[in-house]
Queue: 4 jobs
Job 1
Amino acid sequence: MHSVRQDSFIPFPLAHGLLADMKDDTFSTQLWAWTQDRLKLPAGATHIGYVYDGTVTLEHAAGEFKLRGGMYFSAPGEAVVHGNGRGIAISRLGYDGFFQIGGPVEARGRLKYIDGCTDSLLIPPVMMGDACFNLLYFPPGIDQTQHTHPSMRVGMVIRGHGECVTPTEIIPLIPGRVFVIRAEGPHSFRTTDSEMSVVAYHPDSDFGPTHEAHPMINRTMVNGLSARLIDEIRTK
């Protein structure tokens, strides 16, 4: 297990076990990996995982599920991953998310991002402020604008290759590379002759449903008026 340095971008090998313990972060998080071995994920967290290659079994209170490369999951509470495959799991401690399975991920993102890159929101926040999981797609020839994020990011290169540029170094990125970007750490991604796809965990969000605004209440109409605007019938 490695502690997270104060560099902007911290790479990790895809090695079995606990890669980084970030319990002291504003958003208490642990980063795990499994490599053709059994990995037990603890209670008291929601685990967001990505199967990099092979086939694995996810054991959870909801049941046993076979997942293959390119699939992802959200599993609240204790879980076990095992089988002939490799992947990562990010544990958001103290967070109770939904159980979900999805994928395999698409080739490109569906949402426009910056500098020609695109993004898909694979696991959206259950409520505004909750964690989320994304697919980032970088076409060949991208030289991204240097930027920061207000909270840490955890990611993995799943296809193609490129590099991450920080104020102090250039880090090569190849498939299977796992990384942490610290909060407010300046960085940018660059590609040359290859496209690159990355899955990325955000521990928080400024987007998502709230008690005041969500599709069910917004689209419940009373005499042509949204229930969102009728305080006397709103659940207190």
Job 2
Amino acid sequence: MISVASYNIRKSVGLDWRRDPQRILEIITEVDADIVAVQEVDRRFGNRETSLSPEMIREMTDYEPISFGVRHQSLGWHGNTILVRQGIEVLDQSTLTLPALEPRGAVMADLQVGAVKLRVIGLHLGLVDLWRRRQAQSVLHHLDVLDESLPTVIMGDLNEWTTEGGCLAHFAEHHKVVAPGPSFHSSRPVVAFDRIITTTDIDVEDSGVHMSELARKGSDHLPIWARLTVGAHGRPEREQPTARDATEPAG
């Protein structure tokens, strides 16, 4: 069993408008997942300084942050990073630039979790439906052309209002789309913006939204989580991309 979680921390600014990274780390500790995809970890303007310092993460939790930032003071790539429980080995890591009117990106890490190799993508999609669709296609295309296929978890803030359409329809073509429950707005959650998507060789044993009193104050999103079992039957064979497929999809 592998547990994963995703959390848009709003640059560690809570509903009381206090920037409180310690509170965010306490919430992440409450969730107690093996792997956590974090969105909006860095400040948006200026030097894009991270709101969660690697030193504080290591001191307060048993997580190791994966640094994707191109700036020394940043931790994420377009605000996205991944935390892994100490003892999980990071085999490879990379960043993805997503098509958008505004800067958007995703992060990817190949992990060794015990005897299991797992690929994890953390992402934060855009506010406009057309661009969310293109971003979903871009992520899926990137996975298709990788040399090695691995059981894969994609998770993050999709900003998708619909329950089945939009970018979710693209992900659902060859993946399982999990809606743990409404996660936004944390004061009165009614929309399932935050999702977990897996390849078909992963079974989702349980999932949910972490709704502690602290989590309701820490950000405008609530953390979501899932417990997964990686199946032994392997990923289904997919068609090899053609020359036409080898370019970014237009939409």
Job 3
Amino acid sequence: MTDAPIRVLIADDHFVVRRGIGALLASLDAVEVVAEAATGAETVRQAQLTRPDVIIMDIQMPDLDGIEATRRLSVLVPDAAVLVLTMFEDDASVLSAMRAGARGYLLKGAQQQDLLAAIRSVAAGQMVIGPGVAGRLVGYLGTAQPPDPFPDLTPRERAILDRLAQGQSNGAIAAELGVAPKTVGNHVSAIFAKLRVASRAEAIVRAREKGLGDQGTRS
């Protein structure tokens, strides 16, 4: 009797990337792709419907980014292991993903055997950090770091809060980040909720107290 295949949900906002990963996994008997999703909110819905073993998660997606989607999935679908597969290799993204509940972090471009090994590992409850980020993460964790003043913020929310502290409008932030003003507005609302503030002025004061708003802090 053969082992049942690992059921996988692929979450990425780019159609070509989703299909590419799907084609890569379709050739493997050990894996079954049960669903795809193009947004963070759709990922959460599909995970609740299909109950996959592993969710391959991109970080930057519409509606909810991958980190916030991971945070929600850790509560709503705790048995599903999130494996982040992304172009982002900065320390903040890696740490935010792990704090949100991800069990693995790989960079896009990983070889088929590395991706399959990571899927098997996270499905078995193990943690996986790809070689492209492992060394830097170990060095980061081995260095004394000041406590994160805003641990609940995603990297994108932190970038927007930094720009708010610089005095930028939503429209200016949207133009700089290459997103719609409505998207920035949604992020600002999420920032207010997480910081427990009621106004832009309060958020700016909190951010500047913690050192944000300096031109050198941009991300």
Job 4
Amino acid sequence: MKALLASLLAIPPVLAVGITATISQGVEFSAGQWVALAGLMWLGSLPFAALGLALGFALPPQLTQPVSMLGVFGLAFLGGLFVPVEVMPKALAAIAVWLPSNRFAELGWSVAGEHAPPAAGIAVLAAWTLLFGGLAALSYRRAAAQR
């Protein structure tokens, strides 16, 4: 029930971002593209939600936020969100395409380019979701056992 409520609460900010993009940047998507973008962004956020749960269960409360922020910024940088993958050194570029941050951004790029997201990108996101979900479950079990 809490997850459904959280998902519903996320709708207004997503709408606000869409309206802002349309007004200030001239973004022109069809209604279908907006729906696809919202749905793909929601699904693409699953590995990051699972990572947050894993960190929340594994770390003391005072460390969870700083470690989460470092992780998010690290994934964003290495995933090519601050520097395009095309201009990264070859070793970093090879790593970037395997990170969930890069593949998450790819979902949005595919909607903007009016094509389906690549199956490889979906597979990478699914793998990270399973990995982080498994870590979250393990962390939860450990935290529950310590109580």
